[in-house]
């Protein structure tokens, strides 16, 4: 199990029971439901159960969720996930969320993504990782482009947001 992976000003760590309120806030933030495909609120009870099982390794759970923290203050910024882990085909999906708008566009997501890309390649021996990003999410698209992800397709009217349907773009990084 990963304990801590570090970059310039942030580190990534495994989920802890103390993360209950933070995960609860993120999972129940209506503004984030669009990017997480969440449809209903999560209870603290369900999140507590999830955290109790967070000790499973990526081979067992097929996912790995890490907490993004400030190196100096230990402030929790967000989460970064490896999901749909497929060791046979050496691929997985990746997703990232920085909770507060005030912490976005400061390089936090960039540092976290770099760590996870390196981890996926060097430790999980993945041959590719992918991300699904809303077509109108220009900051996320720019972030993934920065690390060499290529747009490989557009899923038209893929996600319902309110009364409209939005396109989702699939990005892929092949090592």
Features:
Aminopeptidase; 175 residues; alpha+beta; 6 helices; Diamine N-acetyltransferase; single chain
Polypeptide structure, described:
GO terms for molecular function: acyltransferase activity, transferring groups other than amino-acyl groups. Residues 10-172 form the N-acetyltransferase domain. Keywords: Transferase. The protein has 175 residues and is of the alpha+beta class. It has a single domain, classed as Gcn5-related N-acetyltransferase (GNAT) (Aminopeptidase, 3-Layer(aba) Sandwich). It contains six helices and eight strands. The protein has helices spanning 20-27, 30-36, 44-52, 58-61, 108-122, 138-146; strands at residues 4-6, 10-14, 64-70, 76-86, 91-98, 128-134, 150-161, 164-174. The protein has an eight-stranded mixed β-sheet with strand order 1-2-3-4-5-6-8-7. β3 and β4 form a beta hairpin. α1 (20-27) crosses α3. The radius of gyration is 16 Å and the shape is globular.
Break the fold down into its secondary structure elements and pairings.
Elements: E1 4-6, E2 10-14, H1 20-27, H2 30-36, H3 44-52, H4 58-61, E3 64-70, E4 76-86, E5 91-98, H5 108-122, E6 128-134, H6 138-146, E7 150-161, E8 164-174
Parallel strand pairs: 5-6
Antiparallel strand pairs: 1-2, 2-3, 3-4, 4-5, 6-8, 7-8
Helix pairs in contact: 1-3
